[in-house]
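Need a sequence for this fold. Nothing fancy.
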């Protein structure tokens, strides 16, 4: 017994300990709550960090509309919610801890008089859980209630309702999650914001850059700048330059005129203290110009209605000073608002629209158009202008309607090299729509129609008139892709034509425009380019600039795609505010060479693997440029072995164009390619046949 007592005691102690542990566990469980018993909380959407949301315009607002007003949907007011602008997306990490989400959704009354349309969608772990259907202004707030049991990631999305995102002021009001055991939720933006530079600086030894082929019409004044990177001073020489032309050995500027039709093969040399570079420049004197997509700058995406001759000259200076000019950037294009306006309150935009003889009178900010053109030419650059075939431009300035010949002659007299001709109020001419609709609303409504001849007529008129001028003027047709412009753009002497609506510096805008390019791709060729609109990198903002809202990876993707598309490359930012990241994006000669490739083919999407879209562009030297483009929100990390599907054969050298680095050889039949493509990012590779 004596011996047993301690044993029993031990047993007894163990028993008590075990019971106590069980008791503690039970009470612990009761305190913390098992999933079914845990405490439920109401977590309001407006209590979360909404800055992770991306949206088409403005910034995400708590308890206010995107314009900062109190919420009002079809006359009913609300106090709490998330005010946004389509296309918008907010990702909330619910991690299985939310039971449900409920809200009312709608379009705010603050856009009265406009025609917004939007669709609200809730996705859970990649599946659509609810959709509002397309909603319009004046629709009563629509309730939504979804179960989120077990769901880890919720996306609150607002799409544009099918008519663009104009005036889509949208909101999720009285929006809340019922959560289990947690009192807040994390929002999340999966695309990183920190800029990173991929491209090494050009070396000090000379390297010729820019277009390898240049088109001019017989007899036209000739201006082409030979460009190179490398330390300055640089000396340029040319072998076999036609006698009608001369090369300025200090600047590289070739000028002259009266060249006869024919093909000229010129050897260009660039020499500096570090060495010599040599390359062939093909000059094709014939019917066609813009043999590679135009590259330059346009005032609209930064200055919009605030453009002036002074700002344009400063942009040109910045093009030179920043060194962009050494990479082939050429045109300095003045967009809308160089003309007088019919209803602006700004006195510098008011004045005689035309003189007694009907000649257009530029507004007071553009007193000397010829002087401006001369100044830009003096810098080795070229200059462009803007007008509309209708009576009014999109901004309500005077258009060319019934003065086409006078205007075309004026552009040539002043020395302009490029005209963007923008549909806008021409819809009024056809439909007799109200005169006081200077903006795009009426022309938008026309977009559905396919009255082909009517659509072609005003562009044919101006295109033919430009051809009659004694200088080459690149003709940029701007009517947002109506009536399949790519099928007839060449017949009106168009050199490029917009294929889609206006771009904005948002992921949705760039993505949607990119996805719409394949249909017109077969029509791209030297002298004819599909134009997905201007670049939205750097400080942009249509009169009130801010850093582009595109994330760094989205910007790499944007520039890669536009180069693959053989698109006109028109920088849209404030040139005096170029930062290192933006300069890096715009000065990679190997990427620019993809855009400027003389074969003039446009890439198309050849293969899709989930969110990865693979674009392939055939190049003149027999190699291929390939963009592995990730349109999704997760990094793509895979081994790719479908090169044969991209039309490749044999053994190939693979070069990473953004990093300007060879990454090895691959055998198409047996080889595998490791791909790591960031969310909304790109790998831009060139595959060269191995000899
Ligand atoms: C739009 C055009 C823009 C800009 C603007 C000027 O229609 O697409 O790129 O030119 O007009 O008012």
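Here you go.
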């Amino acid at each position: 017994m004596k011996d047993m007592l301690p044993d029993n005691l031990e047993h007894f102690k163990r028993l008590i300990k075990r019971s106590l542990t069980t008791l503690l566990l039970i009470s612990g469980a009761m305190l913390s709550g098992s999933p079914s018993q845990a405490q439920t909380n109401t977590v309001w959407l407006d209590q979360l960090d909404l800055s992770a949301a991306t949206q088409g315009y403005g910034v995400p607002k708590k308890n206010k509309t995107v314009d900062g007003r109190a919420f009002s949907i079809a006359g009913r007011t609300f106090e709490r919610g998330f005010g946004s602008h389509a296309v918008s997306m907010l990702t909330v990490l619910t991690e299985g801890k939310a039971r449900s989400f409920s809200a009312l959704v709608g379009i705010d009354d603050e856009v009265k008089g406009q025609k917004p349309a939007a669709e609200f969608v809730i996705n859970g772990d990649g599946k659509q859980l609810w959709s509002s259907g397309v909603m319009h202004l004046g629709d009563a707030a629509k309730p939504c209630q979804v179960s989120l049991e077990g769901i880890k990631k919720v996306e609150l999305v607002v799409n544009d309702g099918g008519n663009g995102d104009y005036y889509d002021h949208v909101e999720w009001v009285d929006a809340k999650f019922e959560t289990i055991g947690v009192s807040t939720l994390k929002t999340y933006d999966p695309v990183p914001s920190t800029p990173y530079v991929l491209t090494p600086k050009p070396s000090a030894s000379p390297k010729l850059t820019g277009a390898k082929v240049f088109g001019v019409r017989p007899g036209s004044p000739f201006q082409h700048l030979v460009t190179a990177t490398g330390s300055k001073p640089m000396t340029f020489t040319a072998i076999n330059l036609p006698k009608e032309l001369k090369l300025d050995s200090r600047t590289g500027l070739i000028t002259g005129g009266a060249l006869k039709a024919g093909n000229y093969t010129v050897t260009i040399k660039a020499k500096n203290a570090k060495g010599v570079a040599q390359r062939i420049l093909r000059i094709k004197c014939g019917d066609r110009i813009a043999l590679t997509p135009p590259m330059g700058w346009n005032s609209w995406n930064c200055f919009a209605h605030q453009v002036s001759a002074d700002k344009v000259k400063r942009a040109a200076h910045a093009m030179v000073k920043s060194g962009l000019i050494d990479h082939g950037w050429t045109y300095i294009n003045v967009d809308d608002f160089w003309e007088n306006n019919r209803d602006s309150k700004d006195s510098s935009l008011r004045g005689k629209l035309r003189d007694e003889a009907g000649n257009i009178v530029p507004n007071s900010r553009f007193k000397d158009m010829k002087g401006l053109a001369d100044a830009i030419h003096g810098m080795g650059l070229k200059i462009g202008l803007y007008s509309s075939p209708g009576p009014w431009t999109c901004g309500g300035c005077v258009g060319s309607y019934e003065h086409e010949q006078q205007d075309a002659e004026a552009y040539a007299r002043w020395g302009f090299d490029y005209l963007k001709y923008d549909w806008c109020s021409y819809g009024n001419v056809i439909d007799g729509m109200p005169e006081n609709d200077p903006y795009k609303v009426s022309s938008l409504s026309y977009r559905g129609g396919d009255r082909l001849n009517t659509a072609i007529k005003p562009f044919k008129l101006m295109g033919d008139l430009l051809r009659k001028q004694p200088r080459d003027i690149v003709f940029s047709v701007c009517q947002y892709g109506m009536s399949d412009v790519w099928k007839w753009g060449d017949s009106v002497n168009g050199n490029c034509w917009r294929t889609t609506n206006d771009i904005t510096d948002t992921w949705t805008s760039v993505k949607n425009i990119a996805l719409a390019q394949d249909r017109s791709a077969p029509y791209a060729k030297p002298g004819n380019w599909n134009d997905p609109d201007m670049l939205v990198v750097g400080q942009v903002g249509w009169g009130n600039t801010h850093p582009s809202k595109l994330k760094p990876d989205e910007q790499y993707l944007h520039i890669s795609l536009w180069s693959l598309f053989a698109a006109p490359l028109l920088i849209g930012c404030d040139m005096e505010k170029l930062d290192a990241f933006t300069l890096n994006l715009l000065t990679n000669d190997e990427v620019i060479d993809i855009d400027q490739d003389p074969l003039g083919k446009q890439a198309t999407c050849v293969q899709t693997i989930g969110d990865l879209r693979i674009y392939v562009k055939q190049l003149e030297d027999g190699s291929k440029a390939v963009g592995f483009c990730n349109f999704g929100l997760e990094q793509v990390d895979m081994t790719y072995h479908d090169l044969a599907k991209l039309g490749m054969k044999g053994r190939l050298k693979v070069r990473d164009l953004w990093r300007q680095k060879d990454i090895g050889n691959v055998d198409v039949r047996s080889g595998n390619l490791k791909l790591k493509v960031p969310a909304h990012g790109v790998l831009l590779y060139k595959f060269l046949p191995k000899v």
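For context: The two ends are 96 Å apart (CA to CA).
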